[in-house]
Write a structure and sequence with these properties.
The complex is a heterodimer of chains A (173) and B (217). Chain A is mainly α. Chain A is built from nine helices and no strands. Chain A has one domain. Helix content of chain A is 80%, strand content 0%. In chain A, helix 6 (97-111) runs antiparallel to helix 7 and helix 7 runs antiparallel to helix 9. The longest helix of chain A has 35 residues, at 28-62. Chain A starts with a helix and ends with a helix. Chain B has a domain at 67-212. Chain B starts with a helix and ends in a 5-residue tail after the last helix. In chain B, helix 2 runs antiparallel to helix 3, helix 4 (87-94) crosses helix 6 and helix 8 packs antiparallel against helix 10 (190-212). The mean pLDDT of chain B is 82. Chain B is 77% helix and 0% strand. Chain B has helices at 4-21, 25-44, 47-85, 87-94, 96-102, 111-124, 128-145, 154-164, 172-180, 190-212. The chains are: A mainly alpha (173), B mainly alpha (217).
Chain lengths: 173, 217
């Protein structure tokens, strides 16, 4: 049911907007072109920050520094009750969306989709977002340099939500 | 003249520099990712790969940006119709109490309100890049309200913190992976994910409000 809603949302939204605009007598074609041009401009402005972030994360992952970090953090997972299998995902998730998706695929293919790590990985992927990319993208688009507490608060929330997710999965499965 | 004081300043200059720079957190993180990556790559013998990674990722950045152009043009074009016809205004009116609590600094009827609402809705239903388009528009409006153009406002911080806690109701990509690897019931995680998403967003709002404290801007 929710799935169906997700698929039909886009066409439905477009339909309602176009009909509503037409009835209200808006020059819908001109309005579309005007907005679309602005969309193009916004996208172009993003490219420098996309390149910067992609390269930095790529270097960090490709040099296997990320793997080293995961190994270093092993004692920490032993201390808490976070399954070691999902640690790569927990570390990549704030950095890169596609990297996290690759990690989820890796975990699910390795331990099975219905195993505890498999389900935990799936839920974690669905209940969190990439932090550094989103922040630099959004702030970069309006030229903000001082993020104040944004990253700190997002990371703290992320860590808490990881523990919550682990607890929920532990309780429900 | 080479006084003692000068010498100390020269010695500490890099530290002071990084201390000051560290307030711009993304600067520090970017620096850290690149330096640690390259140094570790040198030590572990993976340096050869880094050339390829730079080439690859630079290209990926451009192609991702270009890929974003089409969908952003489409969504912002469509939403421009919705804005002109007054549809967005109607929708955001219904959600005003929530927005008012989360972003007390935004004046009523301000356009920022509408784009935030559209961003949240698009996020909930996983219209990924569409949500980004609305989000960037919201940032632009929040920037207009921000007295200090270099410094994030409370409203901007709250907006991003909520965005980064994930609002998505149905994680389609994950369900697809589960399906591909033969899960008994690929959609069975939706319930748990909804609960986890709800709690993580709630935590994000609370943490954001705590950091915000009593500060006004």
């Amino acid at each position: 049911m929710l799935e169906l809603l997700s698929f039909s949302l886009v066409p439905f939204m477009v339909l309602i907007i176009v009909i509503h605009g037409y009835i209200k007598g808006v020059d819908i074609y001109d309005a579309f072109l005007e907005g679309a041009l602005e969309g193009l401009k916004t996208a172009v402005k993003l490219i420098p920050s996309l390149i910067a972030i992609f390269i930095a994360i790529g270097i960090f992952r490709g040099s296997q520094a990320l793997d080293m970090l995961i190994t270093l953090l092993n004692p920490l997972t032993d201390l808490t009750n976070i399954p070691k299998e999902v640690l790569p995902l927990i570390l990549i998730r704030p950095l890169s969306g596609s990297g996290a998706l690759a990690a989820v695929r890796d975990i699910i293919s390795h331990y099975g989709p219905d195993s505890l790590p498999g389900i935990l990985a799936a839920v974690m992927m669905g209940s969190s977002e990439t932090i550094f990319y989103t922040t630099s993208l959004y702030y970069g688009s309006v030229g903000i340099k001082d993020y104040r507490y944004t990253l700190k608060a997002a990371l703290i929330s992320y860590v808490i939500s990881v523990f919550i997710t682990v607890t929920i999965c532990g309780l429900l499965l | 003249m080479y006084t003692k004081r000068n010498r100390i300043n020269i010695i500490y200059a890099p530290f002071i520099y990084f201390y000051e720079r560290s307030f711009y957190m993304i600067n520090t993180i970017w620096f850290f990712l690149i330096i640690v990556g390259i140094l570790y790559g040198t030590l572990s013998g993976n340096l050869g790969q880094i050339n390829n990674i730079i080439l690859e990722q630079a290209e990926e950045g451009v192609s991702f940006g270009i890929g974003l152009m089409g969908i952003m043009a489409f969504w912002m074009g469509t939403m421009n119709i919705a804005e002109k016809s007054g549809l967005i205004k109607t929708i955001s009116k219904g959600l005003r109490p929530i927005i008012g609590f989360l972003f007390p600094q935004i004046p009523k009827e301000h356009p920022a309100e509408r784009w935030i609402v559209m961003n949240f809705i698009a996020n909930m239903f996983g219209v990924g890049n569409g949500a980004t388009a609305f989000g960037l528009k919201a940032m632009k409006e929040l920037d207009a309200l921000n007295p200090d153009k270099k410094r994030a406002s409370n409203a901007m911080a709250m907006f991003l913190i909520i965005n980064m806690s994930s609002l998505q109701l149905v994680p389609l990509s994950v369900i697809k992976i589960r399906h591909d690897y033969g899960a008994e019931n690929p959609t069975s995680i939706i319930g748990i994910t909804l609960l986890a998403t709800f709690l993580s967003t709630l935590v994000a709002v609370i943490v954001g409000k705590i950091f915000e404290g009593g500060r006004r801007c």
